[in-house]
Fold each of these.
Amino acid sequence: MRLLDYNESNLDKISELIRKNLTYDLLPRKWVVRNMNNPMFGHCHNAAGCLYKIFGVKALHMYRGLDDEGIWHWWVIDWDNVIIDLTSEQYTSVGRVPPYAEGSKSSMLGFDYRKRVMRLYDRVANEYENAPNLFNMENE
């Protein structure tokens, strides 16, 4: 799989496309009701996994941390230790703090979680109009 170069411009474009494509069908069923009042809730693994698939292990690492409600939250960190959390609003919009301090390096979940990440990845790749051939939909 050819990866997209990790730079500020590409990160901005991809981040916008990911956020735009976070829809109900990508949520685990248990998070749908809560997501109705908090649109980023339940999408952290999808968003982090999609970023990771697009930019790769040479640019990003996936992290997760258990929050104050006992729910895992996911984000990525780049090689300069910059936290990239496209769904942090699920915390900040309700006066909570994402669990970065409790975070540890992790890998993407499998099974249905991976299928949802790949569904999002396919959408984002298809919409990335400046480089449509840059993405190969095969797994690494």
Amino acid sequence: MDAFTTLTGIAAPMPLLNIDTDMIIPKQFLKTIHRSGLGKNLFDEMRFRPDGTEVADFVLNQPAWRHAEIIVAGDNFGCGSSREHAPWALLDFGIRCVISTGFADIFYNNCFKNGILPVVLPPDAVAVLMADAQRGANARIAVDLPAQTVTTSDGQVFGFEIDPHRKHCLLNGLDDIGLTLEKVAAIDSYEARQGTLRPWA
């Protein structure tokens, strides 16, 4: 998993409330177990018509936000079914941070396991960031995980809270497997000791 430290990038404004996981990655794309390749289907039913042509007024199809790395979203982002494909699709598209007033719990947890930083801020702060994002590609938002701040393109700073353990994992690029591998020396020592004490096991 790639580490997350700081990010300065284009933010796509998505003020819609209750953007659920089926909107993020529709069910027909859940057959794969690979984390790559899903970015092209991110928000598929919102980005494309049934014939495959783009919906011109969808934010990620507009030139200013085609290369967004941040989403500023309405409340309750990631609700619905507990599909890990949702953060996979966001990450494969290039999204590394989502900012909202609130997230569904399972989606929130899955973001950390996949190198995406979900930032929870109060409504007034999200409103400022949403307005900044709507200015387009020239307005770049800065996210600083070590400092736990989000800064608008004109320098307004908002602090956010994050669990220290989750912060440590993101800063060091550690998913569940990475956390286990940090203890590999202790695991090897335990297994060697048990092999001596209980050779029949």
Amino acid sequence: MTIAIIDYGMGNVRSLMNAFEYIGEDAVVTADFDELEAADRLVLPGVGAFGDAMKAIDAKGLKPVLGRLALEVKKPVLGVCLGMQLFARVSHEHGSHPGLGWLDAEIMPLKVAPPAKVPHVGWNAVSFAPDEWLFRGLPSGESDYYFVHSFHMVCRDPADLVGTTDHGGPVTAAVRRGNLTATQFHPEKSQDNGLQLLQNWLAHEF
């Protein structure tokens, strides 16, 4: 299996590569259109501000290429942290910025009840349906994952939401629709639980 981690200059690609290597999979970091086309699966990472990320994607000419692969070819794509947020139609982080538009969702400021704080940094349990394949082999509401974010995804279609966490209120932790899968937390930094989730994603037949 060929895994391509999309390189647009704002992703924590080294830790993702290390995670895939640990579970016995090779991943290439690339923005080359031909390599993205040839890959079996794509990973969209992301660290930083939404608007800057979309500018970087546009500067490399990646938006139409990724849109075709995700929506027409229906290649499996995994979004991680900011990469998940980029799936949305729009973000309201420092103004309004259009996203990739793959999901009917908006990125909103994270507003939490005390004593929770923003940014949300640290380990939180994630709740999900018992038959959710993305979390197969992991206990709902018990296994922890590592979060770092100040904005969160609001899904307009409840069917897209498959995992939530509690940080001063409910927060979207994982979404999926067809070939599109994404997590707000960092699976590559979530130790054994995150590695299991990556293996589940790789094993799933889309």
